[in-house]
C-alpha cells in the first residue's frame, strides 16, 4: 500500500522536475501549430513561375494554397524580396510584414523601385483563419529587363530593302458560275474559273490573293500554288490566302486557273487578285467580268507540278463573264477587310448543268467530257444578296474577318 507521505513526496518531486522544463513562448507555440492549416504550393510573378525580362515596374505576385483540412481561408500574408536566396531571412529589398488580406492573386510588389536587368528572389507565407502561419514557400525569382525607353541603347535595323504592303483586294468582285442565286442558294459543287493576264515586262514581284466560299485550288501557268480545303475551316472565305508566285511567271501571258468548291448548298463565291510588279510599275488583276467559268472539269494544262512546259491558250469555248457589282475591299495584313460595294445587281443567267454528287466523297464528280465545252460567263455575286445570306453560313461583306454586305 502506498502511504500518503510517499504519494506527496512523489508528487513534489515530479512537480519540481516539470518546473525545470523551458516554457513555450507564444510565438514558438504559433510556430509549433504551423502546418496544421494552410501551406503555399506554388508561386508566380505576372502569371509565370520564373519570368525573364519583365518590364513591369511593380510586378504582381501570386501563390496557390493547399491544406489537408476543409474550409480553410487565408487571413494574412507576409512577402519577402531580396537580391539573393540567402538574404531572404533579412531581406535587403522589401519586407511586407504581416499584412491582413485574403488576396493571394496578383498582389502588387510594393517595395523600392526595381533596377533593370536584375534578378530578385522572393518568398511568401500566409496565416489561416485561426491565426496559424504556414511555412515559408520555396524561394522563387523573377528578372527585370529594361524598364523604360531611356534604358534602350539599341537601334532598329532591317534588311536593305523597302517595306512592302500586303496586296489589296480593292476592286475585286465575288464571282461564281451562273446558276440559281450564288449569293444564297448555289448547289454543292465544284466550279472552274480561268483568266489570262499579260506580263509585258520582267516580273520582279507577284502576289496572288485568293478567297473562296468554301474551298479552292489555284494554279498559275499550270502549277498549283495555293489550296484550301472546302470543309473543316471555319469561315474560310473570310481569310484570304496570299502566296508568292513570282517564280511561276515569265514575260508574255500568265494563265490563272482556280477550282472553287461549295461544300454544301448555300452561298458560293470566288474572290482573287494578282498583284504584279515589273519595271514599269505595279498592276492589279482582279476577279471580274473577264474571267470565264465552267461546270465541267477542263483538261489539265501542259504544266503540272513536275513539268514546266508552257500552258496552252484558253479553250475557245470560254466566254467573257457579265459585269456587275461585287465587293470592295480595303488593304489589311492579314487578311484584307472588306465592305460591300454599292451598285445595281446584274441578273444571273439560267442555271446550267450541275455536276452529279458522288456517294463516296464530299467533292462532286465531274460531268462527261462533252460538257467541257459548256463554258458560261462568270457571274458576280451582288452586294444586296450578301445581306440576306442564311444564318447557317458566314455573311461576307466580300472578304475579311467580318464581311458584311
What is the overall pLDDT average? 71
**The CATH superfamily title of the largest domain:** Galactose-binding domain-like
Strand order of the largest sheet: 13-12-15-10-18-21
Percentage of residues in strands: 25-35%
Largest sheet: 6 strands, antiparallel
The residue ranges in which pLDDT falls below 50 over 5 or more consecutive positions are 6-35, 303-375, 382-405
CATH architectural designation of the largest domain = Sandwich
Characterise this structure.
It holds the Pfam family Ig_Rha78A_N. One of its GO terms (biological process) is carbohydrate metabolic process. Residues 320-331, 338-376, 387-397 have a biased composition (Low complexity). The chain is mostly beta strands and 405 residues long. It is built from 3 helices and 22 strands. A hairpin with a 2-residue loop joins strand 12 (215-220) and strand 13. The model is unreliable at 6-35, 303-375 and 382-405 (pLDDT under 50). The protein folds into 2 domains: 28-147, Sandwich (Immunoglobulin-like); 175-353 and 363-387, Galactose-binding domain-like (Jelly Rolls). The strands form 6 sheets. A 6-stranded antiparallel beta sheet has the order 13-12-15-10-18-21, with no helix packed on it. Strands 3, 4, 5, 7 and 8 form a 5-stranded antiparallel beta sheet that branches. It has a 4-stranded antiparallel beta sheet with strand order 14-11-16-17, with no helix packed on it.
Throw out a few tags for this protein.
22 strands; Immunoglobulin-like; Jelly Rolls; 6-stranded antiparallel β-sheet; 405 residues; mainly beta
Amino acid at each position: 500500500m502506498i502511504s500518503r507521505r510517499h504519494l506527496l513526496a512523489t508528487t513534489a518531486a515530479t512537480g519540481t522536475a516539470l518546473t525545470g522544463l523551458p516554457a513555450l513562448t507564444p510565438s514558438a507555440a504559433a510556430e509549433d501549430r504551423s502546418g496544421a492549416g494552410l501551406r503555399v504550393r506554388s508561386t508566380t510573378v505576372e502569371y509565370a513561375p520564373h519570368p525573364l525580362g519583365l518590364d513591369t515596374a511593380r510586378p504582381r505576385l501570386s501563390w496557390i494554397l493547399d491544406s489537408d483540412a476543409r474550409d480553410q481561408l487565408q487571413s494574412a500574408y507576409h512577402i519577402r524580396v531580396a537580391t539573393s536566396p540567402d538574404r531572404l531571412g533579412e531581406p535587403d529589398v522589401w519586407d511586407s510584414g504581416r499584412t491582413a488580406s485574403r488576396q493571394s492573386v496578383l498582389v502588387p510588389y510594393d517595395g523600392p523601385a526595381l533596377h533593370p536587368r536584375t534578378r530578385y528572389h522572393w518568398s511568401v507565407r500566409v496565416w489561416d483563419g485561426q491565426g496559424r502561419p504556414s511555412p515559408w514557400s520555396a524561394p522563387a525569382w523573377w528578372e527585370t529587363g529594361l524598364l523604360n525607353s531611356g534604358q534602350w541603347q539599341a537601334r532598329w535595323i532591317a534588311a536593305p530593302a523597302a517595306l512592302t504592303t500586303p496586296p489589296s483586294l480593292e476592286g475585286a468582285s465575288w464571282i461564281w458560275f451562273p446558276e440559281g442565286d450564288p449569293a444564297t442558294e448555289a448547289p454543292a459543287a465544284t466550279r472552274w474559273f480561268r483568266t489570262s493576264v499579260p506580263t509585258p515586262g520582267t516580273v520582279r514581284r507577284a502576289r496572288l490573293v485568293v478567297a473562296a466560299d468554301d474551298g479552292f485550288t489555284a494554279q498559275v501557268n499550270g502549277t498549283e500554288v495555293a489550296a484550301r480545303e472546302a470543309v473543316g475551316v471555319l469561315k474560310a472565305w473570310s481569310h484570304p490566302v496570299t502566296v508568292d508566285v513570282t517564280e511561276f511567271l515569265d514575260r508574255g501571258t500568265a494563265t490563272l486557273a482556280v477550282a472553287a468548291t461549295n461544300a454544301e448548298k448555300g452561298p458560293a463565291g470566288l474572290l482573287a487578285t494578282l498583284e504584279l510588279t515589273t519595271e514599269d510599275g505595279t498592276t492589279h488583276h482582279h476577279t471580274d467580268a473577264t474571267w470565264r467559268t465552267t461546270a465541267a472539269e477542263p483538261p489539265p494544262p501542259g504544266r503540272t507540278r513536275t513539268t514546266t512546259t508552257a500552258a496552252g491558250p484558253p479553250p475557245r469555248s470560254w466566254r467573257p463573264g457579265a459585269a456587275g457589282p461585287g465587293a470592295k475591299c480595303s488593304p489589311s495584313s492579314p487578311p484584307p477587310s472588306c465592305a460591300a460595294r454599292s451598285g445595281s445587281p446584274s441578273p444571273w443567267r439560267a442555271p446550267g448543268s450541275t455536276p452529279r454528287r458522288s456517294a463516296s466523297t464530299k467533292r462532286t464528280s465531274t460531268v462527261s467530257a462533252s460538257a467541257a465545252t459548256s463554258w458560261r460567263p462568270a457571274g458576280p455575286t451582288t452586294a444586296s444578296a450578301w445581306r440576306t445570306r442564311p444564318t447557317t453560313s458566314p455573311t461576307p461583306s466580300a472578304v475579311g474577318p467580318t464581311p458584311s454586305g
